[in-house]
Every structure is written in structure tokens, then in C-alpha cells.
Amino acid sequence: MGYICDFCGEQPSVVYCQSDAACLCLSCDQSVHSANALSKRHSRTLLCERCNLQPAFVRCAEEGVSLCQNCDLMGHGTSTSNSTHKRQTVNTYSGCPSSAELSSIWSFFSQSPSAVESTCEQELGQMSINENMERTSWCRIENTISQNDTGLAEVNHDHNVDSRSTWGGSSIMQLGSAPQFLDQPAGTTDTLLTKLSCPQTKYPGVCEDDLYDDFNMDEIDLNLEKYEELFGVALNHSELFENGGTDSLFGTKHMSATDSNCQGAMVAEGSSRGPLNAIQPACSNAASIDSKLSSKTDSVLYFTARQDHSSFSFSGFTGESSRGDYQDCGASSMLLMGEPSWCPLSAEGPFPSATRSDAVMRYKEKKKTRKFEKQVRYASRKARADVRKRVKGRFVKAGGAYDYDPLNPTRSC
DNA sequence: GCTTCCGACTGGACCACACGCTTGC
DNA sequence: GGGCAAGCGTGTGGTCCAGTCGGAA
Predict the structure, then answer these.
(1) Amino acid A49 CA to nucleotide C4 C1' distance, rounded Å
(2) Cβ contacts, strand C, under 7 angstroms
(3) What radius of gyration do chain A's Cα atoms show?
(4) Minimal CA–CA distance to A267: which of A360, A167, A191, A390?
């Protein structure tokens, strides 16, 4: 990744494709992601104009630059003079949007039409932002975040807002909803009450629809090679972060755990001012609900983090750490732009059993049909394997008898 | 409650060979 | 130190199969 498009190697890269982990110019973005239905689903966003390495997280209206979380924090931290800059979250998109469409997504976006118009223009009807219209609205939603006297963030929704937040693959949280303005200094993002919630599921803490798509376990890349460190022993939070677990957890490496067992009912809560809010009861419900939702083998990934006294829990394994350990944690600045949906729960739970069973059905169906994306290291080898003839799934010598030809699946000999 | 059976599910192995990488000159 | 050739090891996808698990009898 870098300043130049990873695909053509000529044009300056403009967008970042999370699925491909590639920086692309608009032209290549369109050509690459118009190749097939799957590639069209790749979620892309602008590239950070400062480091040119990470997907953009916010757009600084004052400076006119798109920034990743790190650069945003560095440039707009409380200690900087730019901390009052008004910033707008950057949407992700999928499909093959035209320049006009991109402009509608990103009001600040302007690009020579010729550079954007593509062969798949006619397919704009299939275009979506954030892949799922249910979770993304085209309308401009102005969520504002401000800090109240207690130092906790308040999120104001103008209207129905899909305010979920997701964990992206490169230490960035994918803000799925429409633009949101961050009026508070970036540095205080650490101090915000931060939660991950999934309003549309009605189930606090259970991102049923997002368990895989948005939580994107394949790409978050929690490196669980050291399983023992994470689960086998009482894990100290600080250990986890100090030995690279921070990156592993929050972004730069892949979560390669047995995906089906990693369901992201996650809560991240942070506050640096005043007494900490106790983890809301709903959080614990997240686990219980999830355990209800997921039958037997499904465990819950339940994470809580507080700045001054972090607790960490993986299905019951918890660890403690002191403040500071998590200062550099990528998640420390994670924001959730949305009304916490960890709504108070009644004794019987927050939802009727019919709704629950319906959700269970949808969850299981989705789990059933889910495909685990595999990271292909060598596209050329994949291309070759894609066209190689096989016998019972095994490659055969060139010219040999075969029973399956990927190029002509109906033909066999 | 215990055992057995059966279906569903999971993960690893297998295959050929182009290509990336290392080594030696 | 750079360039080149040779050789080795890796990775790719569809299918099969052994092992595991859970539910039913």
C-alpha cells in the first residue's frame, strides 16, 4: 500500500478496499470491483490522505483532508490547536458508484468524472453503500456527538439512524452510517462512552446480522495463534496489549479463530473523566442473549474495556489491567455513533419470544450460508488453480483425463 | 440415566505445477 | 555488489474421508 495504486501502479491511490487490503485509484477501483458480484460487495472507503496507509475514518472539513484514526488523533488531539476542527465521518461504499454517487456519499468528494465513470456505470442500480441498505441510509443524517458535563458522549440522532459500528480490518472502525460530525476533539474519543451496538437486531449486544459481515472476523485478524495466551490462562489485559495483542485485537492482524465460535457481541466502554459507568447490565445480557441465540457450540466474544480499569472477557475468561495499558489501543478511540441500544431489560428479556426465534432462525440461516473468505496471497496461483482440471477435486496432469473443468463445469470426460 | 446408532458437521489431505525465493557461481 | 541460472518449496481449489459432535431411540 502506498501512494500509488496497488493495481495499476501508476495512478495515485484514492480509495482503500478492506477486503483486498489494497489502495486503488478510482479507475482501478471501478474495474476491479465490477469484475463480479462478489467483488462488488467489497467495502471501500477513502484512503487516509496523510499516511496513505489506512482507510480514512473522518474528513476534516477545515483542512480538507481525509484521515485515518491514527492521523486524526495525531492531528486533532486535545493537545493540538486543531482539536476543534469540525470533522465528518467517512462512509464506506460498495458496488460501482459514479462520481456523482460518490459525491452524494461524500459531500466533500469531487473528482473528474472521466476518472470515475466506468464500464459498470449501468450497474449503478446495484450499487450500495455499506453493502446493506438496511444498515445504511442514503439520506444525510447528521449525528452529532458532544460531551456532556459528565464527560460522557451524547449522540443525537436526527432520525432513524443505523448507528452501528463495526470493526474493520485495519484498525479502523467502519462507520456504517451516514456522515456524522465529530464536534469534540479527537483526543477525547478515548473518553467517550464507547459501545458497539446493533440496534436493528433488537438484541443488545448481539449483532446478529453483523456477526460476520460487519464484525468481519476474517479481517479483524485477531491473531489467535497464541491461544493459550488468550484463553488458556488467566490473561492479563496489559499482557495482551503489550505483546501485540492490541494490534491483534483491534485491527492490524486477522482474527483467525474458529470463526463460527467468534460471535461479536462486543462492548467497548471508555471513560476517563469522573467515575466510570458501570458496564451496563445489558452487557451481561449480551452474553446471555447470545448464548440463547447461539446453540451449544456458539460462544460469545464479549469484550469490555475501560480506560482506567479495563476488564477483558472472552467467554468468561477475564483479565484486569491498569489504566494506560490501553492508551494506545486502537480501540481506545473507537467510537460508536449511536444511541446505545443496550436498553434496559426486563426480567424476561427485551424482546418477545417470537422475535427471538425469528432472529435465531435468521442467524442460523446466515451462519449456514456464510462463507469464510480466504486470503489469497498469490493471485496468479489462484488464477491458475481456477482453471485447472481436476479429478475428484485433485489436480490432474495437463492433458490427462479429468472429471471437472472449472472453465466448463458441465463438461467432463 | 446410560448406551448405541445415525446424520450433520469439520478439518485435513490430496493432486499438478507455475512461480516466488534462495543459493551458488 | 550486481546479474544470472538452477533448484527447491510454496500455494492454489474441489473433493474425499476420517474424526467429532449432538440428537434420537
Answers:
(1) 41
(2) A 295-297, 374, 376-378, 381-382, 384-386, 390, 392-395, 404, 406
(3) 22
(4) A167
Place of cell 495512478: A11
Q: Is the pLDDT of residue A324 over 60?
A: no
> Between the CA of A300 and the C1' of B3, what is the distance in angstroms?
32
Strand A173-175, strand A165-167: pairing: antiparallel
Residue–nucleotide distance: A30 CA to B23 C1' (Å): 42
Yes or no: say if A173 and A334 are a contact pair by the CB < 8 Å rule: yes
pLDDT of residue A9: 66
Position A208 pLDDT exceeds 50: no
Cβ A178 vs Cβ A161: under 8 Å? yes
HEC profile of A326-346: CCCCHHHHCCCCCCCCCCCCC
Determine which of A10-14, A178-182, A316-320, A407-411 has the lowest per-residue pLDDT on average: A316-320
Q: Are A412 and A405 in contact (CB under 8 A)?
A: yes
Segment A165-177 shows an average pLDDT of: 35
Give A91-134 pLDDT, tens digit per residue.
Answer: 777 776 766 666 666 666 654 433 443 333 333 333 344 433 33
Distance CA A109, CA A46 (A): 10
Task: Please state, in angstroms and rounded to a whole number, the distance separating the CA atoms of residues A210 and A122.
Answer: 29
